[in-house]
Amino acid sequence: MESLNVFTALRNIRAQAWALQSVSESSNASGGGSGWNQNSVEVQRFSLRSRAESGTENDPKLGPYSILLIEDNTADVGLVREALKEHKVQGELLVISDGACAIRFIEDLAAQTMDCPDLVILDLNLPKRSGREVLESIRNNPECQDTTIVVLSSSDAPEDKADASSLGAHHYIRKPSRLTEFLALGATFRQLLAASRNKGA
After folding, report:
1. Looking at the domain assignment, is residue 6 inside a domain?
2. Exposure on the CB side of residue 21, measured as CA atoms within 13 A
3. Structure confidence at residue 146 (pLDDT)
4. pLDDT greater than 80 at residue 57
5. What H or E segment, with its residue span, contains residue 174?
6. Domain total for the chain?
7. Cα separation, 46 vs 172, whole angstroms
8. pLDDT for 132-163, tens place per residue?
9. Are 178 and 77 in contact (CB under 8 A)?
10. Does the residue 54 lie in any domain?
11. How deeply is 42 buried, as exposed, middle or buried, from its count of CB atoms within 10 A (0-12, 13-18, 19+)?
12. Does residue 3 sit within a domain?
């Protein structure tokens, strides 16, 4: 597992307006050909439309991708969304805000033998069920064996990194303390998505 811990002690990041947008902006209806059952209010679905200039929308390195973000902090969800858009990642972002719902979602994928998302971004500190339990559930799903998993956590504890690695996470990133650094994570996510696509080609 690669640890990308390059940040200093955490400070509160002031949430921008886009980080606190209403859930009404999302769609919970099934759609997009993913085959996922998104009728439940447990899953928020966002369309990622990049700020790409004309002519770059069809670049396969930019998408379309499917990304699952398991995170209960609304401001951090907004920051991840903005980071992906900032770096022109296109596709679909599914957001689940607690561990129990995430495990049910993964179990549904297994039951219906549907593909896992291209990338899972997972917080360790989740309500109801821990991120560790979610990670175990993902790795126990045969459909998700090759899915790239990034743990995005405020913790810098060595035991958390060791646990994440032993449970099958590919990367461990400590949540940045500065807005610019958080938005820069979009480049990392884009590289991981492109690498996963190349691996599956």
Report:
1. no
2. 12
3. 85
4. no
5. strand 171-174
6. 1
7. 24
8. 999 999 998 888 888 899 999 998 889 999 98
9. no
10. yes
11. middle
12. no
Residue whose structure tokens are 């989740």? 126
Write out the two tokens for 4: 């990308």
Whether this prediction's pTM lies above 0.85 is answered by no
Query: Alpha carbon of 36 to those of 25, 98, 108, 176: distances in Å?
Result: 19, 18, 9, 31
Question: Domain range for residue 38?
Answer: 32-200
CA distance to 97, 109, 118, 125, 165, per residue, from 146 (Å):
23, 14, 9, 24, 15
Nearest by Cα to 15 from 82, 86, 78, 87: 78
The structure tokens listed for 100 are 């129990």
* Amino acid code (one letter) for 183: L
**Does the structure show a pLDDT above 80 at 14?**
no
Cis peptide before 64 (omega within 30 of 0): yes
